[in-house]
Design a protein that fits this description.
Shape: elongated
Helix content: 40-55%
Largest sheet: 5 strands, mixed
Structural class: alpha/beta
CATH topology of the largest domain: D-Maltodextrin-Binding Protein, domain 2
Number of domains: 3
Distance between the termini: 44 Å
CATH architecture of the largest domain: 3-Layer(aba) Sandwich
Number of strands: 15
CATH superfamily of the largest domain: Periplasmic binding protein-like II
CATH class of the largest domain: Alpha Beta
């Protein structure tokens, strides 16, 4: 298959235009248009609807785009295998992670990573949403959870230590919970749709039903609400470290510890993991080890 046409398709979607794709590929716009047209003839379908102002993927284009990206990445990986260490890792790494984890762990490690690999680009989605890697064309997702069985490959990166936190003002008004049963009398700040918190006990994991007057789809939002004195929040220890040091939040010690879920990287099954994914996961593992 003509990889030049694949590159035009991928870059046109990334930049929003064929002229943008031409600039990235350092070819004339007419050349980019011809390469895309040749790819469409080879496949026997139209991949892009094109006007003078915009482009849009057709239904066939939506289905084909992840495969186009995969074919280009495999070609790059094959070339890199023949010339190891000559130019570093290249290409576009598309990753997703929870917002707080991205802010506190992933983003701080990126300057050194990108400096060492000048031909690498990263597109990072920071969201609490459970993203479908295949349909959205992502290479890897970092998830904080006890993963269920799936068609994806999972690699454990580390663990997250969670604690319960509240502001001094909230505790002055409502008292301090001492055991998990006390949480029923407190305003617990939860992720939308989550009705239980999990605690580790010698006999297993205890599910404690919690409720409050505020639920949010963002951990950062719950963190801010906790600082504002709206209730008790379950947060990662590295996320709340600065607030503990300044006294804006206090850690709560109960008779059981919040469940510590693993941090895992998940990615689509493949016989060969792309060098950019291996590099990213190696850097992330080192960041967690620190």
């Amino acid at each position: 298959m003509d990889t030049e046409g694949l590159a035009v398709l991928v870059q046109a979607v990334a930049t929003g235009s064929l002229s943008g794709a031409a600039r990235r590929l350092d070819v004339a716009p007419v050349v980019a248009s011809r390469r895309l047209a040749a790819l469409e003839r080879e496949l026997g379908v139209r991949l892009l609807n094109r006007t003078t102002r915009a482009i849009a993927l057709t239904a066939e284009g939506e289905d084909f785009l992840p495969h186009a990206r995969d074919l280009l990445e495999r070609e790059a990986a094959a070339v890199a295998a023949l010339h190891p260490g000559t130019a570093g890792v290249s290409g576009v790494l598309r990753a997703t992670a929870p917002a707080a984890l991205g802010r506190e762990i992933i983003v701080p490690m990126l300057p050194a990573l990108l400096e060492a690999h000048p031909n690498l680009r990263i597109e990072l989605q920071l969201t609490e949403r459970l993203v479908d890697l295949v349909s959205e064309g992502l290479d890897v997702a970092i998830r904080i959870a006890d993963l269920k069985d799936s068609s994806l490959i999972a690699r454990r990166i580390g663990k997250v230590r969670r604690l319960l936190y509240a502001s001094p003002d909230y505790l002055a008004r409502n008292g301090r919970p001492r055991v998990t049963a006390d949480l029923a009398a407190h305003s617990c700040l939860t992720i939308l749709g989550a009705r239980h918190w999990h605690f580790d006990r010698p006999t297993g994991v205890e599910r404690v039903r919690v409720s409050g007057r505020l639920a949010c789809d963002s951990i950062d939002g719950l963190h801010a609400a906790c600082r504002a004195g709206l209730g008790v929040a379950m947060l990662s220890d590295w996320s709340a470290k600065a607030d503990l040091e300044t006294g804006r939040l206090e850690a709560l010690e109960l008779d059981a510890s919040p469940h510590a879920p693993p941090v895992s990287a998940v990615y689509p099954a493949a016989r060969v993991v792309a060098p950019k994914v291996r590099l990213f996961l190696s850097a992330l593992s080192a960041a967690f080890a620190r």
